[in-house]
Specification:
alpha+beta; 26% strand; metal-binding
Length: 306
């Protein structure tokens, strides 16, 4: 179980860096002493962690409990004490996000993990197909890359190996390549602990990073979309989940134009007369360090405009 203060400790590194930067105002000597202090504290708990891992060498079940805790695992990685190699950590991380990838009609396999002069190089292969539009490729890319880099910070490059395409579908790997070519500005993850309060089959709107989003929960899975109908482009405020005859997956019905969207499979419109352009815009949502977080794309600003 995640500790209630995981969100606080997840940002501890940023707060420490802010304090170090602030110490520079008192001069280089003060900054140097502050860095030495942080280094001494880090070395102290690092030595304690090393002794703990040595004592647990004959107790693999306890070691697994430690490595399953995101906060403890991150500290073990900092000090080079994590008992699992990079490939094992990457495989475990992808297992955690695989259900989310499945909701977008895809899966991922690790082809190879190789050491290089600048760090580890990972080669991946995607299976299946994206069941909506290129916009959901952003979700896949962020999900996989974030999981890998959190579990294996020594990874310097992630390469997607092309899979054999299937007739009539858009391969996931080609969509990811399209994302890279578009040169997107990137995304920032924002904690959204309020999403944990959603009940099964409940739909709710919330504001995050200045944008209105729509979230719904189905069992243990939470899906987030931008508050914009893929058909009438109006707000989805008041939308609810419905079950269509002959389908096990619930759909979200726009309260204004009554279009139906599959929230489990990347928000595609499932109406008979739907076009490929009529879809919801999925937003990545993952449990990061025990806290539900949403990735919001950074909007690039024009030169000279703040």
């Amino acid at each position: 179980m995640a500790a209630p203060d995981d969100a606080h400790w997840r940002t501890a590194g940023d707060r420490i860096q802010t304090l170090l930067d602030a110490s520079s105002a008192a001069g280089p000597v003060t900054r140097e002493r502050a860095e030495l202090l942080v280094g001494e504290v880090t070395d102290l708990y690092g030595a304690a962690l090393q002794r703990i891992m040595r004592l647990l060498a004959g107790h693999p079940e306890l070691t697994e409990q430690l490595t399953d805790d995101d906060l403890i695992a991150s500290l073990l990685l900092v000090h080079g004490l994590h008992p699992h190699d990079a490939r094992r950590r990457i495989e475990d991380a992808l297992d955690k996000v695989r259900p989310y990838l499945g909701s977008h009609g895809g899966d991922v396999a690790v082809v190879s993990v190789a050491d290089g002069p600048g760090g580890a190089a990972v080669r991946l292969q995607f299976a299946g197909s994206c069941k909506s539009c290129p916009s959901s490729a952003v979700t896949l890319e962020l999900t996989v890359e974030d999981a890998i880099r959190a579990a294996a910070p020594e990874v310097s490059t992630i390469e997607v190996v092309a899979a054999e395409p299937k007739t009539g579908v858009i391969p996931v790997d080609s969509l990811l390549s399209r994302v890279h070519r578009d040169g997107r500005a990137g995304s920032v993850w924002h904690p959204a602990p309020e999403l944990a309060d959603l009940k099964h089959a409940e739909v709710g709107g919330f504001r995050l990073a200045g944008e209105t989003l729509l979230a719904c929960r189905l069992g243990e899975n939470v899906f987030v979309y931008r508050d914009r109908c893929g058909r009438c482009a109006d707000s989805l405020a008041g939308a609810a989940l419905h079950r269509r005859i002959g389908s096990a997956d619930p759909v979200l019905r726009c309260p204004r134009c009554h279009a139906h969207f599959d929230v489990v499979h990347a928000g595609i419109c499932v109406d008979d007369n739907a076009t490929a352009a009529e879809h919801l815009e999925p937003v990545p949502v993952l449990v990061r360090d025990g806290v539900l977080s949403v990735a919001m794309e950074v909007t690039p600003t024009a030169a000279g405009v703040p």
